[in-house]
Prior knowledge:
It is a single chain. This protein is of the alpha/beta class. It folds into four domains: about 5-180, Rossmann fold (3-Layer(aba) Sandwich); about 185-335, Winged helix-like DNA-binding domain superfamily/Winged helix DNA-binding domain (Arc Repressor Mutant, subunit A), CATH 1.10.10.10; about 340-475, TATA-Binding Protein, CATH 3.30.310.200; about 485-670, Rossmann fold. About 40% of the residues lie in helices and about 15% in strands. The chain has 25 helices and 24 strands. Helix 4 runs parallel beside helix 5, helix 10 (about 260-270) crosses helix 13 (about 305-320) and helix 19 packs parallel to helix 21. The model has no long low-confidence stretch (mean pLDDT about 85). The site of magnesium ion has 5 residues, from helix 1.
Amino acid sequence: MADVKLMILGNGRVGKTQLFRRLKGLPFAPVSDSTHGIVIDSLQAPDQEEGRFNVWDFGGQDIYHGTHALFLKSRAVFILAWTPGMEERATHLHEGMEFKNFPLPYWLDYVWQFGGEEAPVIVVQTQADKPGDDRQLSPEAAAALDRFRFKKMIQFSAKDKGRGIAALKEALSEAYDQIDRPLIGPGRAKVKLQVADWRNEDAVRAPTDRQRQIISRPSFDKLCADAGNISDHGLFLHFLHNAGTVFHQPGLFNDDIVIDQGWALDAIYSVFNREKRVFPFLKAHGGRFTRADLAALLWDDAGYSPAEQEIFLDMMQSCGICFPYDHRSQGETIFIAPDLLPKDRPYDLIQKWDDDLPVQTATFEFGLLPSFVLRTIMAEIGDQAGLAGDYWQDGLFVFEADTKSRALIEQGMAEKGWSGAIVIQTQKGDASRLLDELARQVERIASRHGLNFELDEKAPDHGAKREMKDMAFISEPNDAPKCYVSYAWKDDRSDAGKAREADVDRLCTEAEARGIRIRRDKSELGFGDSISKFMRELGKGDRVFIFLSEKYLKSPNCMFELSEIWRNARMEADEFQQRVRIYTLDDAGIWTADDRLEIAEYWLERHSAFGEKMAKHGPRIAATRDIESWKRMDRHASEIGDILADIADRVQPRTFEDFLKYGFEGLLPEDEA
Ligand SMILES: Nc1nc2c(ncn2[C@@H]2O[C@H](COP(=O)(O)OP(=O)(O)OP(=O)(O)O)[C@@H](O)[C@H]2O)c(=O)[nH]1
Ligand SMILES: [Mg+2]
């Protein structure tokens, strides 16, 4: 009774399940459902007295590919099912679901990655109902297959008599013999039988009444000790895992041993079953969920205990199906399932990524780009970055604290075929070091999966050794000073009016040329945006350029802005002067006491005029906002004298060049040192 694992892999809908049915002696079913996740079953090994295969029939939907990795890390026989028709189409639709196809060389590389040359591989051309359907392997596939020590190529049909079934059985029998099956002593055999008994006892119970899906490591050790004669429990456990009898990975799931793997997989894959109500929920929530969500929508009804649910989540994380996104919210960890993220870049990314800044880029061109590459990168970064990152289906954005640099990582697939690119862009700070570090992570993930790529330009080597987990992804500190310009709009009637606007334009152009962004009403505000909100933000600006003109001093909006700045400077002249850079135009009368009094008087008069109008009918006819503005005029009348007197008292830049120099002081990167 030596068990060997048999993995049936290949694209969705090629006929994997039908092939297995025929091996079990079941009839062909022309209409069949797509396999969800993995179905585990057993099969008497052909021509072997007592031998059995533990068979893993994998669902071909690529949403499941990430999970394969969990189970492929063990000695197994592989059947790779393929049909020529699917070699040429990158995707196909089945009952509204999109399946991504991968060509046979990809699957062969994939198996190579996990099993190496030792893995016995049987390539089966499925749906080869008649000799005319038979096809040769492509040169690439033939070369990829040739690397394995034991290999067979068989044409097979699940229909009618089962064309090629005898050859398939013979190949399986030979492959079975390729796997070492150490003879196990009576103690070990006893443990194996007990595990099988538990599973069989549970199988006849209703799913909610099952008792032995998982056992703890101490219970396993006790079982071994009772059976006797087992020197190394850990080694034996590893052997059972390899044979597909149990699932156990040291360190995962509290070291628990999953006796009934099908049970755990059902629970996990039901989350992604499009027919269950949890699927639309996850979609609607941008792929974010908590254990409580899955419990309420799915797992509680199915009878899984909270402890079991934690194990499922561990399992999902360890194969990159999801990653923890926020560890703190309401005591429940929020997870993200990358496959269910929104399609497009988040809207507010335009505020975080600056298209005008210089960018460093590394482009990885993959002849074949499976979706799990980006998903793995996302899970590794996301695990660390959590809420500080932005994620969407084809990319992510993060800021790294150590390099003070931003990174945008995106994948783009070719319209046809399987090729695609992963593009890393970095900007600000030590962008080239961050690029180098991230590029190394992509290289590492690609090589782990045996994927070939071309890198357009090798990133300079900074001797980067940091792993994802050592990087410090945080929300970008908002340290860039916020600059605004406060000015009166142009009036075409006077030359002074035209010149004023030209000066403002020039300031903004000069700032831009130095990489400084000045927020100006015209460029910041779109239709429907609140002007008063913008003016309030301006009032809080770190630096406000003010173009003082006659029109400015008498405009209600400018009055509003000036008084906001004054208030935010706590009405202290020194603080006010630190925040503002003032350019005084010739027509601005602020220099003498009489000038200033005249302006104060102007606002007092406007205040009284409006007050009189309101008094006629009572304040209820005035908009709240206008009453506020009315009160502000009065206050302004009493403040403006102080503000202007202080301005007049300070040395002014004489020329526009001087104004620019003084204005940009402390804003340029070289000023920091
Ligand atoms: N003509 C013909 N059709 C077949 C054969 N094998 C499978 N099919 C057809 O392909 C469909 C899908 O077969 P399955 O065995 O369910 O495919 P699968 O590879 O298990 O698909 P997933 O579980 O989605 O990965 C069947 O319902 C049949 O219609 C075959 O040998 N000949
Ligand atoms: Mg199937």
